[in-house]
Write the structure tokens for this entry.
Amino acid sequence: MSPHHLPGAPAIAAGALLACFFAFMPEDGRAADGRQIAAAKCATCHGNDGAGGEPDVPRIAGLQPAYLARQLKEFADGRRRNEDMAQLGAALSEDEIRAVAAWYGGRKMPAGSPGDPALAEAGRQIYEDGNGDPAVQPCASCHQPDGAGNARFPRLAGQQRPYVAKQLGEFKSGRRATDPQMADIARRLKPQEIRALAEYVGGL
Ligand code: HEC
Ligand code: HEC
């Protein structure tokens, strides 16, 4: 092949530009489909509808999309630590994160299941009134009296109890370093109070 059959510099530059452009598009050029991503990458653990299965896997149905998207980024950047979720979070584009967060945010969280009544009652008191430590604001003041949460504070109602207890432990130890206020509150809760709170919110 003689040198003048090689593509010229302008053609190479145009090709590189196009390659760059397509690298930022979803593979098929359409907007990311949250339902499809959920089925392909999330459902084995969280279910297609986000209702979860295993006790240490959170239910993510009906959580606020902005909260869900933030968690995926925090797993990816290490402020929340979980091996499975870190890899998954890092593998999703901004567009895919938005789409899958909108999908799960639009599902319905299943109602809580009844738990141990005495333990749940102890949890309700702390949830509504705090534990006597003036620095422990009632959970209800942020997460809402019915635990439904809002755009800023995640829903707790109906959440898996072992997951709730594990998160409070991780705020306490600093392993989940996402929110200084939550960390300060968790540090002031005794293990028995954490169990009671998890029992209560799991039943809301
Ligand atoms: C191999 C199992 C597994 C798969 C697959 C998985 N997750 Fe998770 N996910 C978990 C576990 C376990 C946790 C809890 C981590 C912890 O304890 O901090 C979690 C936590 C989360 C949270 C935080 C929820 C909260 O209440 O703060 C979100 C959001 C989430 N996953 C979304 C997803 C999405 C979206 C996908 C698919 C792209 C996915 N997960 C795939 C196991 C999985
Ligand atoms: C001042 C507001 C505030 C108060 C009071 C508060 N929280 Fe939170 N809580 C937050 C915020 C903000 C987050 C989300 C942190 C993040 O983005 O990682 C959170 C997250 C959580 C989570 C993790 C939820 C999930 O899906 O992973 C649990 C569990 C929790 N709080 C329980 C409690 C309990 C129990 C109390 C009462 C003892 C309480 N919180 C009081 C603001 C508050």
